[in-house]
Each structure stands twice: as structure tokens, then as C-alpha cells.
Write a structure and sequence with these properties.
Blueprint (H helix, E strand, L loop, with lengths): L2 H25 L5 H22 L6 H5 L3 H35 L10 H14 L5 H5 L11 H14 L7 H8 L5 H9 L4 H11 L4 H9 L15 H8 L2 H8 L4 H23 L5
């Protein structure tokens, strides 16, 4: 085979890999950046272990050719999977950037690290239309709550009953579908396991769960779509971190000036009333 043919073959192979990874990410939006990073760490451990044990030198072809067949196959597949994951990581990062830019066009993405972008992406999917300028400005006084207390209790019962995150089998899906809850909650429970930790954090916010109870539920998850390693906390803490003053000012910059000033004035008025009530002390 001529060198030019080899280059064409490699280019075609790379395009196929890219298409494969893009298709996979689109079909499975809950496969987060952190999940792929964790996979890459495990793959890298496998590669390093083989290299050290068999003294592999990639500059010396013979050290690779002399590997036992099974070891060679493991090494080759691990390296190939690492390359696929690198493509997936780039695709997911672009996915986060595009989603955040659509909802918060004036937010500076260059200032955000990947974990923060992932949190923004999840918050957008979880809260949707509730992420209005008015709600964001008043987060400290009025934390966002998506589901009713009754639905939160149903969600906790679901987690206790099934003991795992991820897709359900047919019997489990039928059981969940028969529960009295909104279609939105059913969708999150059945189809969006990546949002389960946000749902638990909301349960902490309302007092349905303690931090310890939420962490215990996370520990019992056993499927590949397990909860993130992020510590459980009231969701208002996460939102107040994401939409802290500097970030919020950037987001509000895209609003009409008069609307922004009106919202700021309302916020100041609420703060004044709150201080007046607290300065009067408790009623007797």
C-alpha cells in the first residue's frame, strides 16, 4: 500500500471514530465529561501497568510484537478506547459551551472550568424555564424548587426501592409509570440519571432528606450511570455558587438595560424590608 493510501485510510478511520463518538454523546446526553475522564484514568492505569510489567517501549516495535496475544489485544484496545474518549471529551465540552451560550449568551465561558460548565449544563436541563433573570436575582431569598414535597417523597421512595440509577427494566418502568407524579419527574427518574443528584439536593433543600441520608442513597447505586462524586448539599448552595455576583452580572448584561435596573431595584427593596423586619426583633 502506498503512503498516500495509508494517510487516506487513517483519515477515514478518524472521521469514522469522530462520527461514532458524536453519535454516542448525542444519544446519551447523561454521559458526562467527568464520566469519560474517569474511564480514561482507568484505561491509562491499564496501559501503564502493561508497559511497566512487560517493559514496552513504543519506539521499539519488537517490545510490542513480543507481547502475549491477550496482553497485546488489551493494550491495543485500551489505547484505542483512550483516543475515542479524547474525542468524546471534546464533543461534550463543545456541547456544554453551546448549551450555556444559548441560555446565557453574555456569560464568559473562558472563565469557567469543565466541572462548572457541567453544573451549568445540568442546571439548565433540570430547571429549564425557571432560570429567569428575576428568579436568579432573588435566589438567596427564594431558592428554586422544581418539584412538590409529595413528588420529592415519591422520588426518595423510588431510590430506596430500586437501589440504582440508570435505565430500568420493563417491570420497573411500568411500576414507576403507575406512580402519581408529573411526567417531568418520571422523565428525570427514568431517562435522566445524571440529574438524580440534583433532585436529591433539592430534597435536602426542603428537608425531605438530610445530607447524610442523601449520601447513603448515593453509595448504594451500583450501575454505570451512578451518581456523581460531588458532595450532597442543599441545592441553593450550588445555585448561589453558579450565579454568584460576578457571574450573575455577566448573565444580566444581555438583558435590556431598563429591565435589569427594574429587577435590581426590586432586589434592593426586598433587602430593605427584610432588614426592617429583623431590626424590630421578635414580637411579644
Amino acid at each position: 500500500m502506498e503512503p498516500g493510501e495509508v494517510e487516506k485510510l487513517l483519515e477515514h478511520s478518524n472521521q469514522q471514530e469522530l462520527y461514532h463518538e458524536v453519535s454516542k454523546v448525542v444519544k446519551r446526553p447523561y454521559d458526562s465529561y467527568s464520566v469519560y475522564e474517569e474511564k480514561n484514568k482507568l484505561l491509562n492505569q491499564t496501559v501503564v501497568s502493561i508497559v511497566e510489567k512487560y517493559q514496552v517501549d513504543f519506539k521499539d516495535v519488537k517490545t510490542v510484537e513480543n507481547l502475549p496475544n491477550t496482553v497485546y489485544t488489551t493494550l491495543k484496545n485500551s489505547i484505542k478506547e483512550q483516543e475515542r474518549n479524547k474525542i468524546a471529551l471534546k464533543v461534550i465540552q463543545q456541547y456544554y459551551d453551546d448549551k450555556i451560550s444559548r441560555v446565557f449568551p453574555s456569560l464568559g465561558l473562558d472563565d469557567q472550568n469543565i466541572p462548572t460548565k457541567e453544573l451549568f449544563s445540568k442546571a439548565i436541563d433540570y430547571y429549564g424555564d425557571q432560570l429567569t433573570a428575576e428568579n436568579l436575582i432573588r435566589l438567596k431569598e427564594r431558592p428554586l424548587i422544581k418539584f412538590t414535597l409529595e413528588e420529592q417523597h415519591i422520588a426518595v421512595a423510588y431510590f430506596n426501592e430500586y437501589g440504582k440509577a440508570g435505565k430500568l427494566n420493563n417491570d420497573e418502568s411500568i411500576a414507576v409509570s403507575s406512580l402519581a407524579m408529573s411526567e417531568e419527574l418520571k422523565t428525570i427518574l427514568i431517562e435522566r440519571p445524571d440529574l438524580h443528584d440534583l433532585l436529591l439536593n433539592e430534597c435536602i433543600e426542603t428537608g425531605v432528606l438530610t445530607v447524610e441520608q442523601a449520601d447513603a442513597l448515593k453509595e448504594q447505586k451500583t450501575s454505570e450511570f451512578s451518581f456523581s462524586q460531588q458532595k450532597s448539599m442543599p441545592y441553593s448552595q450550588l445555585l448561589n455558587y453558579l450565579f454568584r455576583t460576578q457571574q450573575l452580572d455577566q448573565i444580566l448584561a444581555s438583558l435590556d438595560y431598563e429591565e435589569r435596573e427594574k429587577l435590581r431595584a426590586q432586589e434592593k427593596e426586598l433587602t430593605k424590608k427584610k432588614h426592617k423586619r429583623s431590626s424590630k426583633g421578635p414580637r411579644r
